[in-house]
Amino acid sequence: MDVLNDVVLNQVLVHFHDPAGGDTNAYTRAVIERVQRDGTCWLGGTEWHGEAAMRISVSAWTTTEADVDRSAKAILRAAQAPGPAH
Fold first, then answer.
1. Which CATH architecture has domain 2-80?
2. What is the pTM of this model?
Protein backbone atom coordinates (compact mmCIF):
# COMPACT_ATOMS: atom_id res chain seq x y z
CA MET A 1 0.00 0.00 0.00
CA ASP A 2 1.26 3.48 -0.85
CA VAL A 3 0.08 6.81 0.55
CA LEU A 4 -0.37 9.01 -2.51
CA ASN A 5 -0.85 12.47 -1.02
CA ASP A 6 0.58 14.68 1.71
CA VAL A 7 -1.84 14.33 4.61
CA VAL A 8 -2.67 17.88 5.63
CA LEU A 9 -6.08 17.68 7.25
CA ASN A 10 -8.33 14.66 7.54
CA GLN A 11 -7.99 12.85 4.23
CA VAL A 12 -5.54 10.34 2.83
CA LEU A 13 -5.37 8.61 -0.55
CA VAL A 14 -3.85 5.13 -0.86
CA HIS A 15 -3.60 2.45 -3.48
CA PHE A 16 -2.87 -1.24 -3.15
CA HIS A 17 -0.44 -3.49 -4.96
CA ASP A 18 -1.84 -6.83 -6.09
CA PRO A 19 0.28 -9.50 -4.37
CA ALA A 20 -0.19 -11.67 -7.47
CA GLY A 21 1.37 -8.96 -9.63
CA GLY A 22 -1.86 -8.01 -11.39
CA ASP A 23 -3.21 -4.59 -12.29
CA THR A 24 -2.82 -2.19 -9.34
CA ASN A 25 -5.83 -0.08 -10.36
CA ALA A 26 -8.16 -3.07 -10.60
CA TYR A 27 -6.88 -4.45 -7.30
CA THR A 28 -7.36 -1.11 -5.54
CA ARG A 29 -10.94 -0.90 -6.83
CA ALA A 30 -11.57 -4.45 -5.61
CA VAL A 31 -10.26 -3.60 -2.13
CA ILE A 32 -12.54 -0.53 -1.99
CA GLU A 33 -15.54 -2.65 -2.98
CA ARG A 34 -14.73 -5.28 -0.32
CA VAL A 35 -14.47 -2.61 2.41
CA GLN A 36 -17.77 -1.05 1.36
CA ARG A 37 -19.47 -4.46 1.37
CA ASP A 38 -18.00 -5.30 4.79
CA GLY A 39 -19.81 -2.32 6.32
CA THR A 40 -17.36 -1.60 9.15
CA CYS A 41 -16.66 1.82 7.68
CA TRP A 42 -17.40 3.64 4.47
CA LEU A 43 -14.79 5.05 2.17
CA GLY A 44 -14.79 5.94 -1.46
CA GLY A 45 -12.76 5.53 -4.56
CA THR A 46 -11.18 8.21 -6.70
CA GLU A 47 -8.38 8.74 -9.20
CA TRP A 48 -5.14 10.53 -8.41
CA HIS A 49 -2.74 11.31 -11.23
CA GLY A 50 -4.26 8.54 -13.34
CA GLU A 51 -4.20 5.89 -10.62
CA ALA A 52 -7.11 4.35 -8.76
CA ALA A 53 -7.08 5.34 -5.10
CA MET A 54 -8.97 4.72 -1.89
CA ARG A 55 -10.07 7.96 -0.24
CA ILE A 56 -10.10 7.73 3.54
CA SER A 57 -11.57 10.71 5.36
CA VAL A 58 -12.20 11.15 9.08
CA SER A 59 -14.48 14.06 9.81
CA ALA A 60 -16.73 13.22 12.76
CA TRP A 61 -15.58 14.50 16.13
CA THR A 62 -17.17 11.40 17.65
CA THR A 63 -14.67 9.08 15.91
CA THR A 64 -12.70 7.20 18.55
CA GLU A 65 -9.34 5.47 18.44
CA ALA A 66 -11.25 2.17 18.62
CA ASP A 67 -13.25 3.20 15.51
CA VAL A 68 -10.00 3.91 13.67
CA ASP A 69 -8.52 0.56 14.75
CA ARG A 70 -11.65 -1.33 13.60
CA SER A 71 -11.62 0.48 10.27
CA ALA A 72 -7.91 -0.13 9.69
CA LYS A 73 -8.40 -3.84 10.41
CA ALA A 74 -11.32 -3.97 7.94
CA ILE A 75 -9.20 -2.30 5.25
CA LEU A 76 -6.29 -4.71 5.86
CA ARG A 77 -8.68 -7.72 5.73
CA ALA A 78 -10.05 -6.47 2.42
CA ALA A 79 -6.54 -5.94 1.04
CA GLN A 80 -5.47 -9.44 2.06
CA ALA A 81 -8.61 -11.25 0.85
CA PRO A 82 -7.90 -13.67 -1.99
CA GLY A 83 -9.63 -13.51 -5.34
CA PRO A 84 -11.74 -10.89 -7.08
CA ALA A 85 -14.01 -8.48 -5.27
CA HIS A 86 -17.28 -10.00 -6.47
1. Alpha-Beta Complex (3.90)
2. 0.83
